[in-house]
Every structure is written in C-alpha cells, then in structure tokens.
Amino acid sequence: MGTWVTLTDVAITELAGNAGLHWVAVDLEHSTLSDHHFEQHARVASLSGITCLARIPAVDHHRIKRLMDAGADGIIVANVQSRSDLDAAVAAMRYPPHGSRGVGLGRSHLYGPGFQPYVDTHHEAVLVAQIEHVDALPSLASILSHPALTAWMIGPYDLSASLGYPGDFSHPDVIAAVHRIRTEAKNHAAAAGIHVVEPNVAELETRLQEGYRFVAYSVDFRALDVAMRDGVQALQTFSTGPNSPLATKDT
C-alpha cells in the first residue's frame, strides 16, 4: 500500500514512511511537480526506508532515464494501451544489452561508487502499467502478460471518462470494464492494483478483500482536505447543538 504525492514539501514522503506505507508515487502527470521535486522526494524516501516511484504521463525515453538516474525505484506508466508501451518503458529503464538506457552517473549510483551494484540490480526496478482507457481493453492479455510488469493499476477516473461517464464508477459500463480487466488479470502474475481515491478505510478493506495487492490509498491533498472538513463539520455540529455552550446568545 502506498499513496500519491502531488505537493512539493518532502515532509509528505517522510510522513508516509513514518506511517508505515510501503511506497509513494510522485505524480508527474497531474501535478505541477518537476523532475527536481521528484529527486527531493526520492532522497527523503531513501532516508525514510520507503520505495519511491515516478508516475509519468507517457513513455518518454529521456525522461525515464533522468528519473531512474535521480533514484526512482520504479516507473508507473499512465494510460498504457499496448504491449509496445511497456517494451519502450523497459528499454528506457535498463542498460544494454537488456535495454537502451544511456549510461551516466547520478544519485542512483551514489554519484559514482555505487555504479556496479546498481547495474547488477537495476533490472529489479518496479514497472506498473495504468489501465485507464477503453482502447486498452482489446490488448489486455498482451499488456498484462509482459514479463517485466510488476503490477497493473486501474485508473478509475480516466477509465470512466474514456467510456463517457467521468467519475461515475457505478455505471454498468464502467463496472463491466473493471470486471473485464480483473478477469483477464487472473491469468497473469502481475499484482492487481487500484486507486482508493478517498481516504476511506472501509473501501480500502473492501478492495483488499477483492484481491488487490498494489493499492494507492488516496492522495496527499485529499487526505488533508478530508481531515480538515471532518474537523469543521464536527465544530459546526458542536456549535449548533441544543446543549452547546457556543449556541448561547452571549457567546
């Protein structure tokens, strides 16, 4: 279980590690975070003993190389629609002869001394495919069977939007698409993933019971927003209740 990071302050990643989450995914698709911000989060993740992944909006060979050099423990590729997307991602993540990644020293190599140990293990980097478009459904078997794939994750908002029902996760067509993905995934080894958008423990438990094993639990700004709104709601209830000391005219 992990969470999405969209805010610049690295305290978010530190808090995630202190809380016991297994990973953070720095969102470089829907946030304003830069590759520089990613490196800062990756540095704190290392110090906090938590895996740091980078979500990218599309396969970009040069950007993947830079993120891996900056210390990414893996890449989440958004909107995967074909096996070739994953082939290209693997090529960008791995050095020859297993890929075509350019070689240069960086944070992931301890700025030089850790180069050989990194080369020996870099093929273990996490690769996650986000399935979030109706056009990916015909290619599910070839996507989910990719040997380098660690996990797949349904992107509920984009998937529902591609079907014409943005955010309507209860629409029969959306439910059917999710069922189709999950059914095909049972034939393959990659871990099942999903985004539990709201910080709701009951929904999290339901998803775990359904067999999801790579779960993004909410996102930093939703966790903050929900917690603050719950506090305000409690205050309003207390302030207007019949026995509230704040409900008197003098107060």
Percentage of β-strand residues: 15-25%
In the sheet with the most strands, the strands line up as 1-2-3-4-5-6-7-8
Topology order in helix (H) and strand (E) letters: EHEHEHEHHEHEHHEHEH
Q: Number of helix segments?
A: 10
Overall structural domain count: 1
Count of extended strands:
8
Helix/strand/pairing category: alpha/beta
Q: How would you describe the shape? A: globular
Give the class-level CATH name: Alpha Beta
CATH level 4 superfamily: Phosphoenolpyruvate-binding domains
Helix content: 40-55%
Distance between the termini: 46 Å
Key terms:
single chain; 251 residues; alpha/beta; TIM Barrel; eight-stranded parallel β-barrel; 8 strands; globular
Task: Give your account of this protein's structure.
The longest helix is centred in the C-terminal third of the chain and has 21 residues, at 220-240. 42% of the residues lie in helices and 16% in strands. It has one domain: Phosphoenolpyruvate-binding domains (TIM Barrel), CATH 3.20.20. Strands 1-2-3-4-5-6-7-8 form an 8-stranded parallel barrel, surrounded by 7 helices. The chain contains 10 helices and 8 strands. The N and C termini lie far apart (46 Å). The protein has helices spanning 11-19, 35-48, 61-69, 83-93, 115-121, 140-144, 156-162, 172-185, 201-209, 220-240, and strands at residues 2-5, 23-27, 51-56, 74-77, 126-131, 151-154, 191-196, 214-219. It is an alpha/beta fold.
